């Protein structure tokens, strides 16, 4: 059974940093593009960042570009999202997701992803 498990969320002050991790199991991780999404209360799920299956291509939402860094380690079946200079509007439940053979420009579409984690809460206090 495929599992994606996020960790690393928590409470942080404005301007602080957090590093989220995503541990994948029961799938050939290197065949999947990996994405990060977030959902704040009362809002739709939104794209945050994505990384190609080999880690060569990265993509970011405009709102996080320059502050967040997505990475992966295929040998360890893990992905990470390093978040710096956090703002209160980043408060949300953060999900990692896996897209089999994902490529091209549809990385922002949640419907393209085959597997999802349960999410980890990030709260940024002002």
Largest sheet: 7 strands, mixed
Could you tell me how far the N terminus lies from the C terminus, measured between alpha carbons in angstroms? 40 Å
Query: What sort of overall outline do the alpha carbons produce when their principal axes are compared?
Result: globular
Low-confidence segments, ≥5 residues, pLDDT <50?
none
Q: Helix- and strand-based class?
A: mainly beta
**Average of the residue pLDDT scores:** 97
The gyration radius over C-alpha positions equals 13 Å
Describe the structure.
The protein has strands at residues 3-7, 10-13, 18-25, 32-39, 46-51, 58-60, 68-73, 78-83, 92-100, 115-116, 120-125. By secondary structure, the chain is mostly beta strands.
